[in-house]
Amino acid sequence: MTLTDPTHQEPTQAGDRTIHDPRTGEVVGRLTPATPEESAAAVDAARAAAPGWARTPAAERGTALHAAAAAVRAAADELADLTERETGKPFAEARGGVDAGIGTLVQYAELGPLHRGRTLHGGWEATDLMVSEPRGVVAVLTPWNDPVAVAAGLIGAALVAGNTVVHKPSERCPATGRRFAELVAEHLPPDVLCVVDGDGAVGAALSTSDVDVVAHVGSTAAGTEIRRACAVSGAHPVLENGGNDPLVVDAGVDPVWAAEQVALGAFANSGQICVSVERIYVHADVAEPFLDALTTQAHEWAERIGPMVDREQRADVHRQVTESVAAGARLRTGGELPDRPGAHYPPTVLDGCTADMALFAEETFGPVAPVRVVSDFDTALQEAADDRYGLGATVLTADMEHAQTAWRTLPVGTVKVNSVFGGAPGGAAQPRRASGQGFGYGPELLDEMTTVKVVHLEPAPAGRR
């Protein structure tokens, strides 16, 4: 498919979307969604290119991905600038996301040619193999909050495993997503990587089309629809969806340090990270000094965070905050719409929250730290575990027994102890329940992008060849 810049199209079709800079509100681009015919043509083109790409030696696919990583590296500032203008993510953070994407492309360029296969121990006269093969065509649907890093992982793993890809970037950052795809596609045969522009309707059409994998990072509502579509079509879903990640502050920890950890988890990228801290349980013994320190942290973070992605997302967050205050939560700081252009929202701290408030029951995806004071650690763990999501959780404790109990019992894909964003490279957790399914990162993502064929080779009897 031909890659074109959607911001050059005039907004004359139904469903066109204007992209505003979240910092200033000015128009920075326009998106014309792909028609059903254009989406179908992209899938058909990727399907036609699949056999040739699958037959390309794995080392050559890895070399192509290395070249794509070099191209992205050369255009890193351009991609970071596009990300900042379309999503409001500060340039330094946006550049960090691009750099992470470059590293991910290199990682899969190296891992792909080494992907597993094995021999089986059968009879002497036969050979038995388990062979890894590409699944075929992968629909990759990526979000706006870290567009290059997420796309690099899913697209890189799919391509190096021998699949072709149809990529739909988020409608909130179409120019970023399309430019990244252009840079990668320049180093691939035609139609191995196709791009379609559009919103959720286009993504839904792709997930019900003739594809073999649907890889999606985004909302739980969209992920639920994709699960249903894949159950009918037989496509393999790889989903990282919403999270409502808890953080537990145990007795005996330094309340100022705990507040710093919580502020980082709740306010970084204006709270718009899949694994942001969404609800905080603090032991009563340290509650007051912790809340004071967290309020101070919120004031400090107000000077350095960027805006939210758009006013629509900001309105959803503000609604949750105001509803919680009306239901009895106490606003410590923030919670007011600023009188300025763009989609800014202040770091917000509330206490007195209850489990039935939307701030605690649903993913907020904004710079909000809702706090609930509990009487003991066991209560905190029990309430933290009582949730329909299962993405991640953090526990701050000096008690090793509590740490061990926490990671053993919390029903989530990732548990972090004493470091809200800590973790070694290569981690590939599986989100649970409403948060998705499948490995979305690390070497295990190659398993999601491939299928296994068992082969039994035995010679024909003498005289019958």
UniProtKB/TrEMBL annotation:
Keywords: Oxidoreductase. Residues 1-29 are annotated as: Disordered. It holds the Pfam family Aldedh. The keyword Oxidoreductase applies. InterPro entries: Ald_DH/histidinol_DH, Ald_DH_C, Ald_DH_N, Aldehyde_DH_dom. The keyword Oxidoreductase applies. Signal peptide: none annotated. GO terms for molecular function: oxidoreductase activity, acting on the aldehyde or oxo group of donors, NAD or NADP as acceptor. Residues 1-12 have a biased composition (Polar residues). This is Acyl-CoA reductase. It comes from Pseudonocardia ammonioxydans. The lineage of its organism: Bacteria, Bacillati, Actinomycetota, Actinomycetes, Pseudonocardiales.
